Amino acid sequence: MLHINKTAFSLAKHARALVAVAVCSLQAAMAGEQASEILRVRVQNRIVLGEAELQNRRFADNEAAMAEFRRNVVTLPRNSSVQLTVELLERGGRYVDVTSHAATEYQSLSPAKLSVSSDGRVTAAPQSESLMGAGGDVAIVVVHDKPAQSAWNKIFFRVLP
Predict the structure, then answer these.
(1) Most buried by CB count within 10 Å: which residue of 45, 64, 151, 158?
(2) Which domain, by its residues, includes 65?
(3) How do beta strands 46-48 and 136-145 pair?
């Protein structure tokens, strides 16, 4: 019963994150702005292309798209962590750090494998019996939502077993 409740809670949190992304796009579209403002994300000071950037790129074929995706998956050993730096492009063309801004929210799409704090610290779960062999790609959704500007991105991680 406890496992089902945790799963339901996790699914509810995942649904809220997806709704937040949809609301960001809808608010921007209603305001006459570009519907897909993108947050730039750095991991250990390296720019990582997330889903938002990759969706806007053109690739010669699926193989090229997958190669670019794989280059931007962050590898994280169990029980280790990395710091995200989240940047928002202002109208003047410069990026502003919004990592710890009150309007920036983070959501792990696989909370049993990966957690994220309100200041953007991503931590892989420690090795445990229940997660043995449960490596694989997981993601963090980042949403920055203010009345004047909304933006998002989704960064992928590979958690080593």
Answers:
(1) 151
(2) 2-160
(3) unpaired
Nearest by Cα to 155 from 68, 43, 22: 43
* Residues 101-151: tens digit of each pLDDT: 999 999 999 998 999 999 999 999 886 555 545 555 799 999 999 887 899
Rounded CA-CA distance 44/85 in Å is 8
Instruction: Report pLDDT digits (tens) over 12-35.
Output: 444 444 444 444 443 443 344 443
H, E, C per residue of 75-116:
EEECCCEEEEEEEEECCCCCEEECCCCCCEEEEECCCCCEEE
Round to whole Å and give the CA distance between 148 and 42: 24
User: What whole-number distance in Å separates Cα of residue 12 and Cα of residue 9?
Assistant: 5
Q: What is the residue type of 66?
A: M
Number of domains in the chain: 1
Where residue 134 sits, what CATH number does that domain have?
A: 2.60.40.1080
Question: Residue 38 has what DSSP assignment?
Answer: B
